[in-house]
Specification:
Number of domains: 4
Oligomer: single chain
Strand order of the largest sheet: 8-12-10-11-9
Shape: globular
InterPro entries: GmrSD_N
Number of strands: 16
Organism: Providencia burhodogranariea DSM 19968
Structural class: alpha+beta
Helix content: 40-55%
Distance between the termini: 58 Å
Radius of gyration: 30 Å
Strand content: 5-15%
Protein name: GmrSD restriction endonucleases N-terminal domain-containing protein
């Protein structure tokens, strides 16, 4: 059975009421199936699109079923995605899927034939359930290492017997040894067979028709792959395409006009063709900001690539256009071309010599700029580039940021945080590099978050922004604007770093002559991290505690937990520690049940639809309404279970809180 067939079967469920395995949970509807965008839409109401969910999560569940025979949806999806009972409910209504409980958790089970009607539920019971649970126990206790050891022992003995067959005239003892080995192999096979979670060997029939590793896998773009939670360590965002913004939480007409109506004059852009000597002079007088804090190890060119660029210039080959944003003081920010400009400047400063050149004479290899002939030096100094200089003051609609997004740098587009770091370079970028490399951050996130594309810096910024600016009067048009605002506010303060060369290795320190702000933010941020690590015993920031440290981190949970814990007093931390079991239980249940009992939504629509805590940490997570609900819920869970009342006071004053 192929996954395409599974999709066709699921599509037949569109419009049908699908009762959850838990009878207390309201039924859901699949309202639309869109093969073009590879998504399906789930709602509590038959005529609304509601949540968009990707086909990929259905495929992940199906792969698990074919591979193991059974599946816990929560574990198959690593605790990611909103309302994990939705895909679980969808699968349970397929005629070849049954459901059961194992160790108190809901599971689904794959059959080779139809055992109930499409659109209905079937629970596995009686003797079949007993056999299945026994096989699951065997499956979980099966040791690949033990099997490997036994197989090696048998193979070595078989090789010994084969040698004896060639040399000994009598085969009686050999026959006895072979019988013994066959018995050992039979016992090993029975052990493995009894650990295959299936009834009547049905899984063999399914696997023959659909080998789990022979399926065609959709080819993803480089950007999609490197942005996936498998690589970043941060849970994928779930898009919500429903019309979920009520009049009471949407922008006013005038505000919409302000954000949507482009500046009539547009961006003011000059097109120039300067020579490299002019660029060199601007760099020498620090009139082009090279963004040293933006250049982390994953973005710095190799020596071979740098040499090839100089080789291209010496050969007179054209280079792609450069883009600069011109600030009010006349300085330029490099929008595109940072590594090319840095390479030329460093070479003209004699900071590296040419190597591994393929097209020029071998005499150029090992040569510094100062050692070139007068003619070659002129070729570099007088080389003209094409540059587009954008007036930063004319950018009223964030089009420079959009340009960052559109430009393909080194084959991979810049991440959101890389763009922020380029646009708002200064103390904030240095501070984020410092925090993201700290032992406290690495330990509390189980070294799970990738530093590539500044994903670790962005995660730190997400919590730091709430610590610095608060949350109660969040009134930004976008979440990105909120994070950018925090960076701009922090940039007004001065930070000095000791041992800056060790900044990305966690070996740097904030100098005593830095502004007090950075010591306040560091203390609070690290308190939030350390206390979260202690309370959740190393599994903080995950939507489910049972999935363990391997699951990706939920950014919304990271924000709310760290920012809230950052504002605790010693007495409050002591109270939480004394009531830890009660708090953890209530917190976990609030997520699992999508509880709506701890806070009120600042939206009539959300309130009427009984959206809860799980929704607020999964969908529309950057909107004001979900941010308020998320923080209020977490704070009220703490209040109910420990009696404490947390007041999040923004370190930078009332920029965000009334």
């Amino acid at each position: 059975m192929k996954f395409k067939q599974i999709l066709l079967d699921i599509e037949k469920l569109v419009g049908k009421p699908l009762q959850a395995i838990n009878p207390k949970t309201a039924p859901i509807y699949i309202t639309k199936f869109d093969h073009d965008v590879k998504s399906y839409y789930v709602s509590n109401y038959p005529n609304e699109l509601e949540n968009s969910r990707p086909f990929t999560e259905l495929e992940a569940i199906w792969n698990e079923l074919v591979y193991k025979g059974f599946c816990n949806v929560d574990q198959a999806l690593y605790g990611s995605g909103s309302s994990r009972n939705q895909p679980e409910t969808v699968f349970a209504h397929l005629p070849y899927i049954q459901h059961f409980r194992f160790k108190g958790k809901k599971h689904i089970f794959l059959r080779s034939t139809h055992v109930h009607e499409l659109g209905s539920l079937s629970e596995l019971t009686g003797d079949d359930l007993s056999i299945l649970l026994s096989k699951i126990d065997n499956y979980l206790s099966l040791s690949n290492q033990s099997i490997s050891v036994q197989q090696n022992e048998i193979l070595n003995k078989l090789k010994t017997i084969l040698n004896r067959v060639d040399s000994e005239p009598s085969h009686t003892s050999i026959s006895n040894n072979l019988n013994s080995l066959i018995k050992s192999l039979t016992n090993l096979e029975n052990k493995v067979n009894n650990s295959i979670v299936t009834l009547k060997n049905e899984l063999y029939q399914i696997s023959e028709n659909d080998a789990p590793y022979d399926r065609l896998i959709e080819i993803k773009s480089v950007e999609d792959i490197i942005e996936d939670e498998i690589f970043t360590g941060i849970e994928n965002e779930v898009e919500d395409f429903q019309n979920d913004i009520d009049d009471d939480i949407s922008l006013s007409i005038s505000e919409k006009s302000k954000h949507q109506e482009h500046n009539k004059d547009g961006l003011r852009i000059r097109h120039i063709t300067p020579v490299l000597s002019l660029i060199y002079d601007r760099l020498s007088f620090e009139e082009i900001e090279l963004q040293p804090d933006f250049q982390r190890k994953d973005r710095i060119w190799s020596m071979e690539k740098r040499s090839k660029l100089i080789e291209s210039i010496l050969m007179g080959l054209p280079l792609p256009a450069f883009y600069f944003a011109e600030k009010k003081n006349g300085n330029w920010i490099v929008v595109d071309g940072l590594q090319r400009i840095t390479t030329v400047f460093d070479f003209m400063k004699d900071r590296f010599k040419l190597a591994d050149l393929k097209s020029l004479n071998d005499d150029y290899n090992g040569t510094y700029f100062s050692e070139l002939s007068r003619l070659d030096k002129r070729k570099i100094r007088e080389y003209q580039i094409t540059a587009h200089v954008i007036d930063d003051e004319s950018d009223k609609d964030g089009l420079i940021v959009e340009l960052f997004h559109r430009i393909n740098t080194y084959g991979v587009k810049l991440s959101n945080q890389e763009i922020r770091s380029a646009m708002y370079q200064g103390s904030s970028v240095t501070f984020l590099r410092y925090l993201s490399s700290s032992s406290e951050f690495v330990e509390s996130t189980n070294n799970k978050v990738s530093p590539q594309r500044q994903k670790d810096m962005e995660l730190c910024l997400s919590a730091l922004s709430y610590i610095a600016l608060g949350y109660k009067n969040f009134d930004y048009s976008t979440y990105n604007e909120f994070l950018s605002s925090a960076m701009k506010q922090i940039n007004k303060h001065v930070i000095h770093i000791k041992n800056k060369d060790g900044l990305d290795d966690g070996k740097a320190h904030i100098s005593k002559d830095s502004d007090e702000l950075f010591f306040q933010l560091e203390r609070k941020f690290k308190q939030g991290l350390n206390f979260a690590y202690k309370i959740f015993e190393g599994t903080a920031f995950r939507k489910s505690l049972i999935v363990g440290k391997s699951a990706p981190i939920s950014k919304p949970l990271f924000e709310v937990v760290v920012a809230t814990f950052a504002n605790l007093t010693e007495q409050q931390m002591d109270k939480i520690s004394k009531n830890i079991d009660k708090f953890i239980k209530e917190f976990s249940q609030a997520i699992d049940s999508d509880s709506d009992s701890f806070a009120d939504w600042d939206s009539d629509k959300y309130q009427e639809e009984n959206r809860g805590f799980m929704y607020s940490i999964t969908a529309s997570t950057g909107k004001r309404v979900t941010i308020l609900y998320r923080f209020d819920t977490f704070i009220n869970i703490l209040k109910k279970t420990t009696g404490i009342e947390v007041d999040i006071k923004p370190v930078l004053g009332k920029h965000n809180d009334k």
